Amino acid sequence: MSSIGGQAVIEGVMMRNKNKLAIAVRQDKKIIIKKEKLTSLSDKIKLFKLPFFRGMLALIETMVVGIKALNYSANVSIGKEEEKLSSWMLVVTLIFAFGIGFVLFKLLPLAIAQLLSVSLALKENSILFNLIDAVFKGSLFIGYILIISRMDDVKRLFQYHGAEHKTIHCYEAKKELTVKNVKKYTPLHARCGTSFLIFVIIISIIVYTFLPSVTFWVNLLYRFLLLPVIAGIAYEIIKLSGKYENNKILNIAVKPGLWVQKITTSEPDNKMIEVAIKSLKAVI
Hints:
By secondary structure, the chain is of the alpha+beta class. It has one domain (about 5-280). About 65% of the residues lie in helices and about 10% in strands. A four-stranded antiparallel beta sheet has the order 1-2-3-4. A hairpin with a 2-residue loop joins strand 2 and strand 3. Helix 6 packs across helix 8.
């Protein structure tokens, strides 16, 4: 299993390989490439190198790196000089992103589950209660993706997402990184962030089932505090699914994430694949 990961950005692709990062962005007829070395808190605190704990840290660091990459690509794609995101702006952006995500995918589904459990007298049945919560959470997530996927800019972003996955597949198959070779591969990948989010939803059903039936606000607090725990578990499953690709149980487990990726990835054109190849070559 390779350590290559990536992310679609505005008119480009970001690739990561251990502590190497590259962002390739198409600007008119040329491709601008930015390379840098990454540092991680795990280099200083060994606890975050251990299974489970590394997933908690990866969630935060991936968001920070991803937001910076999107900011950079947006500026390059329209021909501006690089504008650095200041520390306070980054903190505000992260808090805002977490806040929106928490309201949409934690608070709102829980509120709906709470209302239904009261009206249907299911409050004492923690399994049904958490299943309702998970169904609405998953429905909101998929509905949100379907809505934004109709936007032209997002359609292109999803094409670059497909280019990222196809290029990584080609590299992992040890084939030469050419447009012709890359085009042969699927835009779906088991280690994608979309699969990670689906795992978070599935694992949350299991974890929350063991929580006692309490008030709405205590339930919400539980979900907030347990998010890093669930993220840590999901991260380890994603790692295992990439390491043991032929394991039947893990293959079944990653299926829901691959199904959702059929929305978040699209077939890229040749120019998009060229950008993804440039980005991947820059980190290997």
